[in-house]
Amino acid sequence: MSDQAKFNSGCVMPHRLATHNALPAGSAFLNFRHLVDGMLTPYMIMDRSLTIIYANQAYLDAVERKLPDLIGKNVFHAFPDTDDRTAPIRETFIRTLNGETTQVERTYYHFRHADGTVSTKCWQCIQTPYYGVDGEVAYIVQHAEDITEADKLRQRNEVIQQELDHRVKNIFSVIQAVAMLSGTQAETIEEFRNEFASRLAAMGRTHDQLRDHNWEGLWLHSILKDGLDQFCGRDSERVTICGPDVRLSPRGAQHASLLVHEMATNAAKYGCFSVPGGKLRIETAHGDDAHSVKVCWKESGLSGVTSPTNQGFGSQLFNFMPNLTVDRVFEDDGLRLNLTAKLLHPMEPSPDLTFPRP
Fold first, then answer.
1. Which one in 19, 230, 290, 337 has a CA-CA gap of 20 to 30 Å to 124?
2. 187-239, pLDDT tens digit by residue?
3. How far apart are CA 33 and CA 36, in angstroms?
């Protein structure tokens, strides 16, 4: 009689499982098939030749197979894969046949679905040896679990953790640089505290926006508008922003927000925002290649503007950013800044936006 026939007839386990002596007499035996058939976790049984002789419904659902598709087939024929993938699994099964309970953690294999498509699955399994009446291992009872989605989540969390670590280190380096530059410019502790706090607040607003946009970066026009709103109110007629927009990386967005905050602060102290009729026009343009953007910051409404004799925080901040080149021209009616920034990614196509339209 074959193993499968014995299994079906109940002559050989796995059919009945002897219980502990302390249990009531009426439960001296448990019906193994009835017990495992109804379990929600996948179970499969192989004989010593690694031929599948049983699989419960949960297992069949997980592998998208019918019972006749598996019964009587060698496990490596039922689920073919490359030799380098199957070799360690085969060694694990041999150890189980030698009496060892084994575990396979996070095993990846190519899975052919019922519709013919192929995907990579991740399973973890426990193999338990089952002994026959002769004291030798007769079967391998495998408890399997499909952890594909959980493994994808684990990998995604690892990537997020690495990215978060990188961003936190970058933010710390920027804060350290801002603190050092602020300290060299401030004449009093009070002045340092106020200016440093305002710069951190600008970074915090950008961080909130990046979080709200899933850290996919921010549009330059949005950064300009948000930074300037802090000084002259939302949608002020004193400010015009025009030209093609561009999405900046998270790091680029943080740097840009610091620059906008500093330039707007200087405009409020000494430039166009320090006089009632002062205005600011910002024009963005494509650079010489797809990896660069140009920005022209032009203040007007002043008179008799001259170049300062000392280097302020903004000038030092420009030097802190190696991917940025700046040309400053102190025209009679206000400052003109021509900036060119190198981008991590090519400029994305976007319509010309104006806030407000000139």
1. 19
2. 788 888 887 888 888 888 888 888 888 878 899 999 999 989 888 877 788 99
3. 5
Structure-block tokens of residue 30: 């448990």
Q: Which fold has domain 172-342?
A: Heat Shock Protein 90 (3.30.565)
Q: Phi first, then psi: give them for residue 53, nearest 5 degrees.
A: -115, -10
Cα(202)–Cα(213) distance, integer angstroms:
17
Tell me which of 310 and 64 has the higher pLDDT: 64
For residues 86-92, give the mean pLDDT. Answer: 90
Residue carrying the six token digits 């496990």: 75
CA–CA separation, 22 and 12 (whole Å): 24
Tell the residue number behind the tokens 């426990």, with chain if given: 126
Decide: helix, strand or coil at residue 325.
Answer: strand
Q: Where are the domains of the chain?
A: 3-146, 172-342
Say if residues 56 and 42 touch (Cβ distance below 8 Å).
Answer: yes
CA–CA separation, 47 and 142 (whole Å): 11
| Contacts of 173 by beta carbon, 8 Å cutoff, 6+ apart | none
Number of neighbouring beta carbons within 10 Å of residue 106: 11
- Torsion, Cα 30 32 38 44, to 10 degrees, reads 160
Three-class SS state of 39: coil
Which residue type is seen at 320? F
Helix ranges, the chain (H): 3-9, 32-37, 57-63, 67-70, 75-78, 83-97, 148-185, 189-212, 220-232, 250-269, 313-320
Given a cut of 50, whether residue 251 has pLDDT beyond it is yes
CATH fold of 3-146 reads: Beta-Lactamase (3.30.450)
- Using a cut of 0.85, tell me whether the model's pTM lies above it: no
- Express as a percent the part of the chain with pLDDT over 90: 32
